[in-house]
Design goal:
Number of helices of chain A: 2
CATH superfamily of chain B: monomeric porin ompg
Largest sheet of chain B: 16 strands, antiparallel, barrel
Distance between the termini of chain B: 42 Å
Oligomer: heterodimer
Number of strands of chain B: 20
Distance between the termini of chain A: 33 Å
Structural class of chain B: mainly beta
Strand content of chain B: over 45%
CATH architecture of chain B: Beta Barrel
Strand order of the largest sheet of chain B: 1-2-3-6-7-8-9-10-11-13-14-15-16-18-19-20
Number of strands of chain A: 0
CATH class of chain B: Mainly Beta
Order of helices and strands of chain A: HH
Shape of chain A: elongated
Radius of gyration of chain A: 17 Å
Largest sheet of chain A: none
Order of helices and strands of chain B: HEEEEEEEEEEEHEEEEEEEEE
Chain lengths: 72, 387
């Protein structure tokens, strides 16, 4: 059920792109701020991924080819 | 076709803005080569513990460098050294350290990424990663392709990776086990308004081989399936509040796999810009997960006792695990990051976080009973320079 809800959200998001995404280059000053990046701090994101990968059952979603570890 | 937004006046403005130094640096959803070098050093101190004793402590110095080699080639390198010590549970929350057998390990990991940017708003990134411990080695590679629409408001991502890992436990008969992971990602990032940007990724990983924890198998009972298929849907949304000069970063991930684990994870970060280059970022994360189908609660076989699950004698080669990480629980992280920018492109930052797992915090089902609460503290300090 949850998967269906998420798929619907996904479709709405993608469909929304058609009408909303008309931002012009000169309107992108705020979007270019470092804080507006999805992962603004490279090493902080790596630490977080590594920590939760070794302490919880769920992982993944942001990128591929992370490589494993024997983390206890 | 004549696009009404492309009037001559706007073209002139756009052309003027395109002069060096006038155009705002590119938005993060775009596919444009970075034109500055970034060097970052961080030190992480991590410590986890439970009621009956301290568990692991990890000290990790890490380095990251991103530098454009030419206008359209970018080189990245990351390296980390983890110094690990302490006690890991044999089964459930029963600690190995309690019987005097602490763990000492050092993990050295490095990765290199080379990205080529093409004129048609496409980038191809090739990454190689290597990680080495006393008892574990991983060699991984991946390719990620990104492509942006002509207005640079929509970016598509597709990627694939492989990781070949070897496990050589330091207990029992010397033996090397193998495991491999294939993973893939498809994603879309979209600029919605001058203050809103979002991203949606679907991630899939297929693991096969030796997925058991060799130490838990040796000291306790652990025998996991030879295959695991993992899925994750990650949605992220960032909003900039002009009135507050602050950014709200949000993310939601739904994860499910064929071990019957499903998890929902929400993160919220509020990056508050302050005068004199200060940024204050409080953050919250909540995650809830169900247990793997072969996880057994700490109720042991009436004859054999701990760590054996009930009925173990009838099925000694069955699939079992007493790993707390595969139990059902809810987890909360609360953190605060402080950073300050200095002249010359220097940034100094520090971050403190507290993490706790509790069965009673699970949403969407019951948490696994009979485990001690798991707690961790994480501290980071970092220096970054961009030039």
């Amino acid at each position: 059920m949850k998967r269906v809800v998420l798929l619907v959200v996904a479709i709405v998001l993608v469909a929304g792109c058609e009408s909303m995404g008309k931002v012009q280059p000169w309107q992108k000053g705020n979007l270019a701020k470092p804080e507006m990046a999805f992962d603004p701090d490279a090493l902080e994101a790596r630490f977080a991924d590594h920590t939760y990968f070794s302490k919880e059952a769920a992982s993944g979603g942001a990128g591929v080819g992370g490589g494993g570890c024997g983390c206890n | 076709m004549h696009n009404k937004t492309n009037t001559p006046a706007r073209s002139v403005i756009a052309a003027a803005l395109a002069l060096p130094g006038l155009l705002p640096s590119s938005a993060h959803s775009q596919v444009t080569a970075p034109n500055a070098t970034l060097v970052q050093f961080k030190f992480l101190y991590y410590k986890d513990y439970q009621q009956s004793g301290d568990r692991m402590t990890v000290k990790s110095p890490a380095l990251y460098l991103l530098t454009p080699i030419t206008d359209d080639w970018v080189f990245e390198i990351g390296a980390v050294y983890d110094s690990i010590s302490g006690a890991s549970p044999y089964y459930h929350t029963t600690l190995s350290g309690a019987s005097g057998k602490g763990i000492h390990d050092a993990r050295k990991a490095a990765d290199v990424t080379v990205t080529k940017y093409f004129a048609n708003r496409t980038s191809v990134a090739v990454r190689g990663a290597y990680s080495d411990e006393n008892d574990y080695r991983s060699t991984a590679g991946s390719v990620t392709i990104r492509h942006a629409t002509p207005d640079q408001n929509t970016t598509f991502t597709i990627g694939g990776g492989y990781s070949g890992d070897s496990v050589f436990p330091t207990v029992g008969t010397p033996q090397t086990y193998y495991k491999r992971t294939y993973d893939a990602i498809v994603g879309i990032s979209q600029v919605f308004t001058p203050n809103d940007t979002g991203q949606l990724n679907y991630y899939y990983a297929h693991q096969s081989g030796y997925l058991t924890d060799p130490y838990k198998a040796y000291w306790g009972v652990d025998n996991r399936p030879m295959v695991r298929a993992q899925n994750a849907l990650l949605a992220r949304w960032n909003h900039y509040f002009e009135s507050a000069d602050a950014t709200l970063r949000t993310s939601f991930r739904y994860y499910w796999d064929d071990w019957d684990v499903s998890a929902s994870t929400v993160t919220l970060e509020w990056a508050q810009t302050l005068p004199a280059g200060w940024v204050l970022t409080p953050g919250l994360r909540y995650s809830t997960q169900s247990a793997a189908w072969f996880y057994y609660d700490p109720v042991y076989d009436p004859i054999l006792g701990a760590p054996f699950p009930p009925g173990y004698l009838q099925n000694p080669n069955g699939i079992y695990s007493a790993d707390q990480r595969l139990s059902a629980f809810g987890a909360i992280t609360a953190g605060l990051k402080v950073s300050k920018a200095f002249a010359g492109g220097w940034i100094i930052d520090g971050k403190a976080e507290y993490y706790e797992q509790q069965a009673s915090w699970r949403i969407g089902g019951d948490g696994s009973p009979g485990l001690e609460t798991f707690k961790a503290q994480m501290y980071q300090v970092g220096v970054t320079r961009k030039f």
